[in-house]
Amino acid sequence: MGDCNKFYKTYSKNNLTGGILVLWCTHSVCLGFHSIPVAEGQNDVFSAIYTRFPVAPKVIIYDFACQLAPYSFIREARYFQHTRFLIDEMHAHDHTHCGKACFASNAMRFDDRVRAVNTSAAECGNKGIKRICKSYTKVFLDIWNWNTINRIYIMHAK
Fold first, then answer.
1. pLDDT digits over 106-148, tens only?
2. What does R_g of the chain's alpha carbons equal in angstroms?
């Protein structure tokens, strides 16, 4: 997968440790969340996916997909055997030493299904999450999902 040059030290300097990991679909609907008491690690993302989906997603778009993929394959190879791990477009520029196979932008050149995906859906949702206190997260996500699902329904009803 390459030799990623992004490390925890970069995150800790920017105060990006701890908090809430939210699983978003490409329509910005929250599929679940996972509380992270200290620093986000591969096990947090792995556990959030593995415990919430009976079958692994076909595509996982994540800013550290280059590291999550080997970690996931080592832990549960059979479960993730048909999953593609891709780095979203927004974070790809920081992954200068990672293999091109990890980039969503590269996959878009060859796969119409990936081309149709909003790789920034999680970032859009995370912006909303940052505005609220942790204790209100569940209520916020319920309201967020209700509003998002209504928008999708209205778009398709026309």
1. 666 787 777 767 777 666 666 666 666 555 566 667 777 778 8
2. 16
Here the tokens at position 134 are 């942790």
Q: Which amino acid is at 48?
A: A
| Residue type at 116 in one-letter notation | A
C-alpha distances in Å from residue 147, one per residue of 11, 14, 23, 134, 143: 32, 31, 17, 20, 6
DSSP letters, 35-50, are EESS---HHHHHHHHH
| Phi/psi at 73 (5° precision) | -65, -35
In whole angstroms, what is the distance from residue 71 CA to residue 73 CA?
Answer: 6
Per-residue burial over 38-51, b if 16 or more Cβ lie within 10 Å, else e, is: eebbbebbbebbee
Nearest-angstrom CA–CA distance, 31 and 112: 23
Sequence letter at residue 95: H
71/50 Cα distance (integer angstroms)? 12
Rounded to whole angstroms, how far apart are CA atoms 35 and 63?
Answer: 18
- How confident is residue 83, by pLDDT bands cut at 50, 70 and 90? very high
pTM for this one? Answer: 0.68
Quick one: tokens of 122? 């999680």
3-class DSSP state of 7? coil
